[in-house]
Structure formats: C-alpha cells, structure tokens
Amino acid sequence: MKSPGSCSLLALFLLGLATSQPATAQSFATGLYQFLLEDGEVKSLEFEARTEREVTTGGMAYVDQANIPDVDDSEDPRAGDAPPELYVKADFDTMVVEKNRALMGGKVIDSTHKTFIGQWVQLVVEDNGRDPRVPDQLTWAFCQPQNRTWVPSDADWKDDDGAYLSWWATDAERKDDVGIPSVNLLAEEKSCPVFSLALYSFAEIQKPEGDIVVEP
C-alpha cells in the first residue's frame, strides 16, 4: 500500500539533488520507498535521476536495518560486530527509461560498509501508478569492477577469435522471448551488466509504503 505521507528518510540527501531543472528535461525517475523482504527487516530507498541532453544526474540512498557484516564471510575473524544498519549512497550517471520502467546505474560514493565503496550499483524500478492493488516494484544489484588484463583464447589454435564474437540467445519455441545478449569481454566495463528492461525480475517486497514515479 502506498502512503503519500511517508516521512523522508534522508531529506538532506534529496535536497542536495533537488536543483532547478529546465522544462526541456527528457526523462526522470524519483521515489521514496520503504519495504520488507524475507528477513523481516525494514529497507528504505530514496532516489532521483534525471536525463537531459543525454546527460544523467542524480543518486540514491539505501538503508537496510539488517545487521550485515562488512566482509564476504561472516565467520571471518576480521568481521567483528556488524554495523547496526547498512547505509549506501551512490551517484547515478546513466539511465534508461522504457514506458513505466527505469534502469539507473552509477557508483557507490559512501557507505557504512567500506567494501561497498567504489562498487557499481544498478537500480531498476517500475511505476504502477497509484492503484494500491498493484504496488510499485524495484530490484537492485551491486557489482565489483573487474580489471581484465587478458583475452581468453584457445592455446592450441593461434587464430582463435571467439572472444571477439557476439550473439543473442533466444528460445526458438517462444516468439515473445526477448533473448539475452552475449557478454562483450573486450569492452571497457563501466557499469553492472545492462539488459533489456523486460528481462529484469523484481524483488518480492512486503508491506511497501511510498511511491515511485517514472516519466519517459
């Protein structure tokens, strides 16, 4: 259920983003959302992104009240006590909008967990209007930049150019299958892998409050 009266999680953060924009802006997405996942802990998200003249600006602030350790292995002796909550702040530099969905990408610039700082973040949202029976949806991912210093090849075949090929995998028995592109191993990575917005599945959120707005 959406609650227009939801209190602002990080009002100062959004105030910094709320600079005046000319009426010629091409598209924007914004939201203030609070929800639960299977762990029962409250998650809160505020974001705003705007694309004008092919330049995207904006950012997001995410807070998770679950006690998440700042290491991959929670049993690691270096883990210590988990911070009381996970806070992540990121700047956006890319956005793609298709109908009522928006995909935003950028880099984490601040976090209570040092391991998140410098990672890429990808946020995908869906604006379903104000019908409480059809809540807005979202999903997100954090990706670690990879430093590729080699090109995979077949050592027994000096003319192997497989890494330079590309393809699109689809289900031949389904005409509505949009397919999945191959990964370009030679391209410079600048974000999490980006797919067609129709391919993304959303998190199974519970007790959503707030609103997401997407304007193409």
Overall pLDDT score: 79
What is the helical fraction, as a range of percent?
under 10%
Strand order of the largest sheet: 7-6-5-4-3-2-1-10
Q: Find the structural class using helix and strand composition.
A: mainly beta
The domain tally reads 1
Biggest sheet architecture:
8 strands, antiparallel
Rg, nearest Å: 20 Å
Describe the global form: globular
Mind sketching the topology for me?
Elements: H1 11-17, E1 27-36, E2 42-52, E3 55-64, E4 86-98, E5 101-111, E6 120-126, E7 137-143, E8 168-169, E9 180-181, E10 206-215
Antiparallel strand pairs: 1-2, 1-10, 2-3, 3-4, 4-5, 5-6, 6-7, 8-9
Quick structural gist:
The protein is mainly β and 216 residues long. 3% of the residues lie in helices and 38% in strands.
Q: What features would you describe in this structure?
A:
The chain has 216 residues and is mostly beta strands. The chain has one domain. Helix content is 3%, strand content 38%. It has an 8-stranded antiparallel β-sheet. A two-stranded antiparallel ribbon has the order 8-9. Strand 4 and strand 5 (101-111) form a beta hairpin. The longest helix is centred in the first third of the chain and has 7 residues, at 11-17. It starts with 10 loop residues before the first helix and ends with a strand. Residues 3-24 have low confidence and may be disordered.
Task: Please give a handful of descriptors for the protein shown.
216 residues; two-stranded antiparallel sheet; disordered N terminus; 10 strands; mainly beta; 38% strand; globular
